[in-house]
Amino acid sequence: MRIAVVVPRYGAQIVGGAERHGAELAIELAREGHDVEICTSDAGPSRSSDRYACGVEQQGAVTVRRFAHRDRSSGIRDLDFLIQSGAQIGIDESEYWITARNDVPELQTYLADERFDVIIAIPLLAASTLRAIRSGGRVVVIPCLHDEPAAWIPIVRNMMASARGYLYNTDAEARLGIREFGRVHDSAIGGMGFRTPNDADRPDYSSTAGSPVGDGAPYVVYVGRWDSGKGLGGLASVVCDLRSNGVEISSVFVGAGPDAPRVRRGVVLAGQLDETAKQGVIGNALALCQPSQRESLSIVTMEAWLSGVPVITSSWSEVVRDHVTLSRGGLHYATLAGLRRSIALLLGDPVLRASMASAGRDYVLSSYSWESVMQRVGRALERFTT
């Protein structure tokens, strides 16, 4: 099968769950014998960084084709505010918003002229996905959908109705899509695959020497964007409260963003780490904390379980709560008092902690190994292309 995988950006320095998902899926599809081409923009890791060269290159079994992009995002601040506040906007405004970032008009022309058996586009909220849908090809979207105001603007509803099918990451994400948009499309569960990491390559941060995790106290770790909507302030305050009551515990925040938690005793900002250091910080943690309510899969949850660490998540995150409930790989909380109790419970019960981590690992290997994911994706693509 000849397959195009459309992602907003692609490259070794590109950080983003959807971009990583699309890139790794392309490699797995090529391993299964498909003729795979990644179609993407020339955008670099950030707006201020150099662009990649447009054109075609071969990376192993996958062809990579980059197109020039245009960016008008500096001119949509007022529109951003309206959308995030839940205001109603028209179809033209919503289209302008989605194409203001990293638009690739030439991609649409190319996909319309080429004969791909199927075009897989990820994520839904991307100009590249809109261009893929408008190419007239047989487009399957991996939406990476979560409950946010931008997901409900008029252009997104049009896109949802126009694709050939959808590959959701989880049952919870599929329930959200059907609940909000109805059964306007054929859909299946796909997901992203994971492999067991090599523990020998993981740094040991159990001592403070060379460690990015603070004073050597046991710690819970958050990995991701530092954003006001992620619940990071609540996590930091709970840990500080425990610490003020004599409990030896810290919170470590890996990542970056505009809303970093305030640094104080028990709050460590590790910043952005390379992959080896990140896995080391996760693997030596008491637990991974995922307070964010806006997830369609949660890559870091899977990575934590594969590293032998249980997960604590918000009950209001339907996706991660489902993972935790189905796997028995952690705890979920509805209030900050519940978060406090969850941390204290795991801190005082190493047997329970190990049992949950093991159950989570089994869940990932049975439900989200690349082998199981590609079986689901293969069956779905056969259905979408007949």
Structure description:
The protein has 2 domains: 208 residues, Rossmann fold (3-Layer(aba) Sandwich); 169 residues, Rossmann fold. Strand 7, helix 7 and strand 8 form a beta-alpha-beta unit. The mean pLDDT is 91. The longest helix has 18 residues. By secondary structure, the protein is α/β, with parallel strands linked by helices. It contains 14 helices and 14 strands. An 8-stranded mixed sheet has the order 3-4-2-1-5-6-7-8, with helices on both faces. The protein has a 6-stranded parallel sheet with strand order 11-10-9-12-13-14, with helices on both faces.
Task: From the structure above, extract its key features.
14 strands, 2 domains, Rossmann fold, 8-stranded mixed β-sheet, alpha/beta, 14 helices, globular, 6-stranded parallel β-sheet, about 375 residues
Query: What's the architecture of the largest domain, going by CATH?
Result: 3-Layer(aba) Sandwich
Write out the strand line-up for the largest beta sheet, numbering strands in chain order.
Answer: 3-4-2-1-5-6-7-8
Q: Helical segment tally?
A: 14
CATH class of the largest domain: Alpha Beta
**Helix content, binned percent:** 40-55%
Whole-number total of structural domains: 2
What is CATH's topology name of the largest domain? Rossmann fold
Shape descriptor reads: globular
Order of helices and strands: EHEEEHHHEHEHEHEEHEEHEHEHEHHH
DSSP, total strands: 14
CATH superfamily of the largest domain: Glycogen Phosphorylase B
Which stretches are poorly predicted, pLDDT < 50 over at least 5 residues?
Answer: none
Main pleated sheet:
8 strands, mixed
What is the gyration radius calculated from CA atoms?
21 Å
* Class from secondary-structure proportions: alpha/beta
* Percentage of residues in DSSP E strands: 15-25%
Task: Report mean pLDDT, rounded to a whole number.
Answer: 91
